Amino acid sequence: MTLPVSIVVCTYNDHHFLPKCLESCAGQNCQEIILVDDGSSHELSPDLWQTVRAHRIEYVRLGENRGLAAARNAGFGLARSEWVIPLDADDWFYGEPGCGVRPLVEATDSRDDCVVGNLTECGSVCKPPMAAKADSHGRCALTREDWLSGNMGFSTTLIRRSIFSDEHIHYDGSRKEQYEDWKFFIRLWKRGKFWRYVPAKVYCHTVRPDGMLRRMDLRREEFRKIATEEL
Q1: Which three-class secondary structure state does DSSP give residue 36?
Q2: Integer distance in angstroms from the first to the last C-alpha of the chain?
Q3: What is the pLDDT of residues 172-210, one digit of tens each?
């Protein structure tokens, strides 16, 4: 069964990661895959074009480098499925039974706005911080204190597309602090959106020394300001 999901992959000068990423997306059997190129300095290689055509991937190239927030907004704006899930170009979905996107979709009901699972880093399984707050059904009712303590969601989270009809729900890159995902999830929480946690391996996260997750603990005061300010 084809999953009612739009996968949005954003890339900027990291095309060498895309073969594995896009093949993993194609293996999820989702309704559509959207690839947004955020104004890379080089074009897709012939082999990558072949992958894009073979899997009927919708390719969009922005005229200039505008940042991850703008690229995600562009991809989400093109999505047509009931659910949307972003994936960084250097990450990849698991394809084994009980892993990847499918267990997230199968766990949803009409009350869910966001569904998140586990990722792996260097072979180790990592749970999102809100997993400790989940009830027996996986529902997570988070508080302001949870977010202030850094209880953020993983960037690859299944999101109901209909919530984007709210003008406040978008990625904000206006200040270029490089934690667009955390700010986005704060917006979802402030608008009363609900989470579900599913204990399944969804994707493998590529660790980079300068990655945003490596800087989270150094920026608690900045996060506190964003979590308490009005939309």
Answers
A1: strand
A2: 39
A3: 876 555 677 877 887 777 776 778 999 999 999 987 555
CA distance 83 to 31: 10
Q: Which one, of 144, 141, 218, 223, lies nearest residue 179 by Cα?
A: 223
H or E segment at 19? Answer: helix 18-26
Convert the pLDDT of each residue in 9-32 to its tens digit: 999 999 999 999 999 999 999 999
DSSP alpha helices (H): ranges in 123-219? 144-148, 180-190
Q: What is the DSSP string of 50-84?
A: HHHHHTT-EEEE-SS---HHHHHHHHHHH--SSEE
Q: Burial level of 36, CB count in 10 A (0-12/13-18/19+)?
A: buried
Enumerate the β-bridge partners of residue 88.
10
Neighbour count for residue 88 (Cβ, 10 Å) = 21
Dihedral (CA of 26, 114, 110, 164) sign: negative
125/129 Cα distance (integer angstroms): 13
